[in-house]
Amino acid sequence: MTARPLIVVGDGGHGRVVREVMRASGSHRLLAVVDDRYTEAGERDGVYYGPLLLLRTLLADRADAEWIVAVGDNAARRALVERIGMGEERCASLVHPAACIAPGVPVGPGAVVMPGAVANPGARIGAHAIVNSGAVVEHDAELGPFAHLSPNAALAGGTVADEGAHIGIGASVIPGVRIGRWSVLGAGAAAIRDVPDGVVAAGVPARTIRRLAELPPPYAPQPAGGGR
Ligand SMILES: CC(C)(COP(=O)(O)OP(=O)(O)OC[C@H]1O[C@@H](n2cnc3c(N)ncnc32)[C@H](O)[C@@H]1OP(=O)(O)O)[C@@H](O)C(=O)NCCC(=O)NCCS
C-alpha cells in the first residue's frame, strides 16, 4: 500500500492523536499540519506547517494529497470543514490498526477511529465523526456526522448518536435510544431514554441539565471541488 500524503488541520491535543493514528495505520504520511496558530508557512523535517490558507495551495500542488480536520470539539470541527469548503472527495478517514471494525461498516470521510475501538456489524460511522479510544459502536448503531464517541463510551445495538452529538467519556446508551442532534451526554452517564436535540444531559439515569442556545442547520457537504 502506498502511503498518501495527508494534510492534518489542527495542531492541538486531538490533532497529535490523529497524527499517531495516521502513523500507525500506514495509510498516509504527513505532508503538512495547518492551523491558524501559525501565522506564516514553514517546513520542518519534511513537513509543512502553516495557516489554514496553506491547505488550498498544497491540495492544488499535490493531486494525490488528502486532508482531515483533527479538532475534537464537534462544532469547531464542523466550522472548519465548512470554512475549507472543498467537498469530501479528497477527505481522508483514518482507522487505527488496533481498532476492530466489522467488514462493511462505513467509515465516513473525515472520520477517525482510535485504538481499541470496536464497531460491530451494521454499525455506521458518519462523516467527520470520532470513535475515540476503546469506544464501542454496537451492531446497527449509528454515529452521525460530526458526532464524537469519547473514550470508553458505548452505543448499544440500534442506538443513534445524531449529528454533532457528544457522548462523554465512559457514558453508555442502552439499546434503541437516540441521542439528539448536537446534544451532549455527560461523562459516565447512562442514557436509558431518548435525549432530545440540543441539550446537555448527565447522570445515571441521564437527565437534561440545560438546553443549548441554538442548533446549526443539518450538515450538507459542499459539492465536489466546491469553494468559497
Ligand atoms: C455534562 C457536562 C457537559 C456538563 O458541563 P457544564 O454544562 O459545564 O455543567 P457544570 O459543570 O456547570 O455542572 C452542572 C451540574 O451538572 C452536574 N454534572 C456535570 N457533569 C456531570 C456528569 N458527567 N455526571 C453527573 N452530573 C454532572 C454538576 O455536578 C452540576 O450539578 P449542580 O448544579 O448540582 O452543582 C460535563 O460535565 C461533562 O460531563 N462533559 C463530558 C466531557 C468528556 O467526556 N469529554 C471527553 C473528551 S475526549
Characteristics:
228 residues; alpha/beta; Rossmann fold; UDP N-Acetylglucosamine Acyltransferase, domain 1; eight-stranded mixed beta sheet; 3 helices; globular; binds coenzyme A
Task: Write up this protein.
This is Acetyltransferase EpsM. It comes from Paenibacillus cisolokensis. An eight-stranded mixed β-sheet has the order 6-8-11-14-17-20-22-23, with helices on one face. The protein has a six-stranded parallel β-sheet with strand order 7-9-12-15-18-21, with no helix packed on it. Strands 3-4-2-1-5 form a five-stranded mixed β-sheet, sandwiched between helices. About 15% of the residues lie in helices and about 30% in strands. The model has no long low-confidence stretch (mean pLDDT about 95). With about 230 residues, the chain is of the alpha/beta class. The protein is globular and about 50 Å long. The chain folds into two domains: about 5-85, Rossmann fold (3-Layer(aba) Sandwich), CATH 3.40.50.20; about 95-210, Hexapeptide repeat proteins (UDP N-Acetylglucosamine Acyltransferase, domain 1). Coenzyme A binds near residues 132, 187, 188 and 202.
Strand content: 25-35%
How many helical elements?
A: 3
Helix-strand category: alpha/beta
Mean pLDDT: 96
**What is the second-level CATH architecture of the largest domain?**
3 Solenoid
Bound molecules: coenzyme A
Total number of β-strand segments? 23
Oligomer: single chain
Instruction: Identify the strand order in the major beta sheet.
Output: 6-8-11-14-17-20-22-23
